Amino acid sequence: MNAVTLTPEPLSREAFAPFGEVIEASDAVRHFTINAGNTERYHDLANIDAGPDGKVIVSIFRGQPRTLPFRVAMMERHPLGSQAFVPMSGRPYLVVVAPPGPVPTADTLRVFVARGDQGVNYATGVWHHPLLALDAVCDFLVVDRSGAAPNCDEVELAVAGLIAAL
Question: Is the pTM of this model over 0.85?
Answer without folding.
Answer: yes
